[in-house]
What we know:
By secondary structure, this protein is α+β, with helices and mostly antiparallel strands. The chain has helices spanning about 25-50, 75-80, 95-105, 110-125, and strands at about 5, 10, 15, 20-25, 70, 90-95. The relative contact order is 0.16.
Amino acid sequence: MExxxxxxxxxxxxxxxxxxxxxxxxxxxxxxxxEDLKNIFNTLMLLEHSYLGGNGSRGYGRVSFSCLSLEIKTxxxxxxxxxxxxxxxxxxxxxxxxxxRLEIDNQKDTIGTHVRTYYNEVCYMK
Length: 126
C-alpha cells in the first residue's frame, strides 16, 4: 500500500479519479486497496483466457490457476518480534481467481480494518 506525501511531509489523504469522484482520507486508501486487490485477480482471469509465449493458436502456453489463497497481514504483525494486537487476519482460499475476486467484495469491511491499522501504524508513528 502506498502512502503519498507532499514536499513538506504532509500525508496526502485520498485520490481523485476521472475528475468525477473524490475519495478522501482513509476511505480513499481502503477503496484503492480493494480495487488493486481485485485487479490482481482480474489479471489472472485474463491470463487464463490467453496464452504465454509463442504458438498460442496451437494450444501452447495455456495456463490456469487453482487452489489460490490471499492473506492480508498488518505491518505490526509482520515486523514485530513480540505478540502485537492486530485485527484478525484475512485469509481467502478459493479455487479460481474469479471466486477470490468475489470474496474480496464480501470481505470489504475486514480488509478495511487492516488498511486502517496499516495507515495508523505507518502514518501516525512519529
